[in-house]
From TrEMBL:
<dbReference type="GO" id="GO:0006564">
    <property type="term" value="P:L-serine biosynthetic process"/>
</dbReference>
<feature type="domain" description="ACT">
    <location>
        <begin position="452"/>
        <end position="524"/>
    </location>
</feature>
<dbReference type="GO" id="GO:0004617">
    <property type="term" value="F:phosphoglycerate dehydrogenase activity"/>
</dbReference>
<dbReference type="InterPro" id="IPR036291">
    <property type="entry name" value="NAD(P)-bd_dom_sf"/>
</dbReference>
<keyword id="KW-0028">Amino-acid biosynthesis</keyword>
<keyword id="KW-0520">NAD</keyword>
<dbReference type="InterPro" id="IPR045626">
    <property type="entry name" value="PGDH_ASB_dom"/>
</dbReference>
<dbReference type="InterPro" id="IPR029753">
    <property type="entry name" value="D-isomer_DH_CS"/>
</dbReference>
<dbReference type="InterPro" id="IPR006140">
    <property type="entry name" value="D-isomer_DH_NAD-bd"/>
</dbReference>
<comment type="similarity">
    <text>Belongs to the D-isomer specific 2-hydroxyacid dehydrogenase family.</text>
</comment>
<dbReference type="InterPro" id="IPR029009">
    <property type="entry name" value="ASB_dom_sf"/>
</dbReference>
<keyword id="KW-0718">Serine biosynthesis</keyword>
<dbReference type="Pfam" id="PF01842">
    <property type="entry name" value="ACT"/>
</dbReference>
<dbReference type="Pfam" id="PF00389">
    <property type="entry name" value="2-Hacid_dh"/>
</dbReference>
<comment type="function">
    <text>Catalyzes the reversible oxidation of 3-phospho-D-glycerate to 3-phosphonooxypyruvate, the first step of the phosphorylated L-serine biosynthesis pathway. Also catalyzes the reversible oxidation of 2-hydroxyglutarate to 2-oxoglutarate.</text>
</comment>
<comment type="pathway">
    <text>Amino-acid biosynthesis; L-serine biosynthesis; L-serine from 3-phospho-D-glycerate: step 1/3.</text>
</comment>
<keyword id="KW-0560">Oxidoreductase</keyword>
């Protein structure tokens, strides 16, 4: 039974879903990094929010880890590169807390416009400070949205409902989508110049780091309101403090900080400054949504191989997963066999899919074959890491599709090119079993078995007898024997499955047979 660790506070619904689905689950929150490193080898899955930060060291220690699930949107706390390199799927729940976060941004906007937290605190302090608080209306004001994705669009909808004018900067926002949302797409500087209030809804990436900079704050209208419910590093906090102190920025409301938890901060205590402790996603509804969703996605992956909302591997639906499985197994075996036959760096890999398999999503099949292929050199590679590792090694990957099958329902042709030669294997599924139907152009019908010997020999009489003699003397029993040749009197290809591991010296003895050119031992 797969085992998952929930390492951050999460709705109990996650635990329930895991257990109902047959996944063992431990909930241990508040672990130090060292404590997590000590226990993580026991787990197949790790479920987190934003507190736990699975970095390269934690992921390296996680020998059995297959999936990290983020019950929420932002995955900046997860080292996705390390996870990918180690074949760990990283998934998030991209919609479950979006409405809640948009509502928090609107709440922060009103709080800033009317100074509700300070007014509340002083009223409860017995001051009745009625004349100290004069707010501004949001009606007819211009809201500048930086990042108009899921949450930005939800904020836009709500702001339009408040009869605000909405302008948005987002390099990936199309004109059509802007029209549909009812927002005006503008350039970044124009947004800073025109907005009465600015709200941020981008991830923290190179292009957005410090996007609310000192220089851009200088472009804003006097009296602007700044709201950040996205990520801390988007705002230059020092410049914001100066602009608040100078009275240029009317009010600022931050839910997120460059360093969290922010327990002491130069902005704390600044007049017209509002802070919440990263509460954007913290509602009953959102937490239930993301907990259920992350547990379902992780359980699906661990139990069936279905992948949804992964950031580092293609999606596989629950319906597709069982249909893909035999082809993924076939591709893995074809890749692993070929990987043991080539002894030079791979330059290019070409996949041709024929027949019924072309109706399926072939990305996972390609990824499985690549993983198999790279396994001889990189034992830890898997379907998640293989495409990235292949790309990093400059391996060119091509895929093509032919609608009709040649001689079986579905065929997969894998052609691997090295500096010296091209290796071609064609496989199929026959009665649910993976089979090799062609090897280096030679037709055959061979099953994959745990121990195989591959021989390339001159097509001359006497070879089979000699080979049988060598195997017999070494007490190696032949299970199946497949032999074929390209042309009479030229080269032949022979694939022998044997019972049990091949003795160390056997390849040498076979190589000594007159007709033999190449011998490789293949283990599956
Ligand atoms: N405070 C909280 O508790 C929560 C914070 N968040 C954060 O909110 C942010 C947005 O989330 P979603 O809307 O779901 O993400 P999303 O991916 O749907 O939208 C992000 C948008 O930012 C845009 N973008 C990327 N680079 C940009 C740039 N250089 N300038 C302007 N726009 C750029 C993208 O095109 C995209 O449309 C994320 O960082 C997420 O972590 C999400 C949920 C809760
Ligand atoms: O979903 C997100 O991106 C969030 O920032 C929410 O963070 P949290 O799960 O509340 O720690």
């Amino acid at each position: 039974m797969p085992k998952v660790l929930i390492a951050d506070k999460m709705s109990a619904a996650a635990t329930q879903v895991f257990r109902q689905r047959g996944v063992d689950v431990d909930v241990i929150t508040g672990l130090s990094k060292e404590e997590l490193i000590n226990i993580i080898p026991d787990y197949d899955g790790l479920a987190v929010r934003s507190t736990t930060r699975p970095d390269a060291e934690i992921i390296a220690a996680a020998k059995n880890l297959k999936v990290i699930g983020r019950a929420g949107i932002g995955v900046d706390n997860v080292d996705i590169k390390s996870a990918t390199d180690r074949g760990v799927v990283v998934m998030n729940t991209p919609f479950g807390n979006a409405i809640t976060t948009a509502e928090h941004a609107i709440a922060m906007l009103f709080s800033a416009a009317r100074q509700i937290p300070a007014a509340s605190a002083r009223t409860q302090n017995g001051e009745w400070p009625k004349s100290d608080f004069k707010g501004v209306e949001l009606f007819n004001k211009t809201l500048g949205i930086i990042g108009c994705g899921n949450i930005g669009a939800l904020v836009a909808e709500r702001a339009l409902g408040l009869k605000m004018k909405v302008i948005a900067f987002d390099p990936y926002l199309t004109k059509e989508r802007a029209v549909k949302l009812g927002v005006e797409k503008v350039e970044l500087d124009a947004l800073f110049q025109r907005a009465d209030a600015i709200t941020l809804h981008t991830p923290l990436v190179e292009g957005t780091k410090g996007i609310v900079s000192r220089e851009r704050l200088g472009m804003t209208k006097k009296g602007v309101i700044i709201v950040n419910c996205a990520r801390g590093g988007l705002v230059d906090e020092e410049a914001l403090k100066d602009a608040l102190d100078a009275g240029h920025v009317r009010a600022a409301a931050l839910d997120v900080f460059a360093v969290e938890p922010a327990k002491a901060h130069p902005l704390f205590g600044t007049p017209n400054f509002i802070a919440t402790p990263h509460l954007g996603a913290s509602t009953l509804e959102a937490q239930e949504n993301v907990a259920v969703q992350v547990a379902e996605q992780m359980a699906d992956y661990l139990l069936t191989g279905a992948v949804s909302n992964a950031l580092n591997t293609p999606s596989i639906s629950a319906e597709e997963a069982p249909r893909l499985k035999p082809f993924v197994d076939l591709a893995d075996k074809m890749g692993r066999m070929t990987g043991q036959l080539i002894h030079d760096p791979i330059k290019a890999v070409e996949f041709t899919y024929k027949g019924a398999v072309t109706d399926l999503n072939t990305n996972p099949i390609t990824a499985a074959a690549l993983a198999g292929l790279l396994k001889a050199a990189m034992p830890d590679v898997n379907m998640v890491s293989a495409p990235v590792l292949a790309k990093e090694r400059g391996i060119e990957i091509k895929e093509s599709y032919v609608d009709e099958a040649e001689r079986a329902e579905s065929l997969i042709r894998l052609a691997v090119e090295t500096a010296k030669r091209k290796f071609v294997v064609v496989g199929t599924i026959y009665r649910g079993e993976p089979r090799i139907v062609r090897l280096f152009g030679v037709p055959m019908d061979a099953a994959f078995s745990p121990n195989m010997i591959y021989v390339r020999n001159a097509d001359k009489p006497g070879f089979i007898g000699e080979l049988g003699g060598v195997l017999g003397r070494n007490k190696v029993n032949i299970a199946t024997f497949s032999l074929g040749r390209m042309k009479k009197d030229e080269e032949a290809v022979c694939l022998v499955s044997v019972d049990g591991p091949v003795p160390a010296n056997l390849a040498e003895e076979i190589r000594a047979i007159d007709q033999v050119k190449i011998v490789d031992v293949v283990e599956m």
